[in-house]
Amino acid sequence: EIGEELLSAGRKARDLDRAHVFHSWSAQASLDPMTVVKTEGPHVWDGEGRKLIDFSSQMVNTNIGHGHPAVVAAIQEQAARIATIAPAHVNDARSEAARLISDLTPGDLNHVFFTNGGADAVEHAVRMARVHTGKTKILSAYRSYHGGTDLAINITGGARRIPVDRAAAGTAHFLPPFTYRSSFHAEDDAQEGQRALEHLEQVITLEGPSTIAAVILESVPGTAGIFVPPAGYLEGVRELTRRHGILFIADEVMAGFGRTGRWFGVDHWGVEPDLLTFAKGVNSGYVPLGGVAISDEVYQTFAETPYPGGLTYSGHPLACAAAVATITAMQEEGMVENAARLGTEIFGPRLQELKDRHPSVGDVRGLGAFWAVELVQDRTTKEPLDIGELVAECKKLGLLPFVAENRLHLTPPLNTPDEVVRQGLDILDQALEVADRAVQG
Ligand code: PLP
């Protein structure tokens, strides 16, 4: 169904890409990026005209799918009226987006500072926490992802950290609860959550509460593996931080805006953070947008004292108009409820069944439209499996997953029709035979 014109434009774009585009996170010379010539709803079409089910939502951001007509129209209308305006001027799209976000976020997060994406939201949340508390250290989890800028990548746990002086950067790390690969020799979620909390309390004590401005945590860690925290863990972090005069920053950049089947991940546990970072799903990435939702208490610090920070495009009208239209569409079309239902009715049972039948599957976990399938060479040792061939097979059969280390992340748009979700899981079922062969061979 893709005409020769689009395909030839795609081939030209690919040549130019290889000649001139510098890609994220990659050694440039050996790259073989997929060309996309068309997108629609839960589907994308590649450079050969093949239709793929988009279980990646790209960077887990197209929560409303591709090309939602109401959002496209809102952007077009806004572009024709006021395409851009300085952050100092009042703008109706920005005001309405801030109102909607204040209404949806938990607790008294009643003010919004807009950024261009997730990493700068994290940067600004940390800056607010540091100024508000007068302290510098930021505690964050190994096994996390908070963004690609210097501070955000050093808050991020794991090997992507770049070699800067971490003491100067003012960051320290702790182990989050992750029952499948427990660092605490836990046998179940309850033990894992309890021991992870005790560990965090020790880290706080050893680092010194009087030096710590904030703990930043993804409510449900995304890129690091989609592991849902045990019941009680986030509530415990909230209690610990409050007791020690430390702010709690919830990073909802990936988990937020419906991905987990609630508006925000923290809503599953009734936790109210002091600062909440968002991006991605706020407008499904149709125009870059992120931000920090700010509690009344933190806001008070900047009521009389100027906030030391800003961006040319803070609250960009095109991005904010897209956010207003996106949130409205999500509400009108019940997308968050649908994500919850996809999780309990389709993903949960079906992935469990795939795990039972495929020896290469070590673990399946998630909620809402936010699932990880972890591939292992051996279920006992849990040694990671190289999944290059499995990913290629998925794509060949028409499924585009999000890939992280030895895991496939299944994170489709929240409004993906049931039959498309089932088709995607059928493809995965078939493709897993390739991974099973690698295990058995
Ligand atoms: N925080 C979390 C939890 C994320 O998942 C991401 C991106 O994946 C970021 C921050 C960084 O966002 P961005 O890539 O928009 O800078």
UniProtKB/TrEMBL annotation:
Pfam family, one: Aminotran_3
GO MF, one example: pyridoxal phosphate binding
Gene3D superfamilies in UniProt: Aspartate Aminotransferase, domain 1, Type I PLP-dependent aspartate aminotransferase-like (Major domain)
InterPro entries for the chain: Aminotrans_3, Aminotrans_3_PPA_site, PyrdxlP-dep_Trfase, PyrdxlP-dep_Trfase_major, PyrdxlP-dep_Trfase_small
Cellular component GO terms held in the UniProt record: cytosol
Domain of life: Bacteria
Keywords: Pyridoxal phosphate
PROSITE patterns: AA_TRANSFER_CLASS_3
Protein family (similarity comment): Belongs to the class-III pyridoxal-phosphate-dependent aminotransferase family.
Listed NCBIfam families: PRK06062.1
Protein name listed in UniProt: Taurine---2-oxoglutarate transaminase
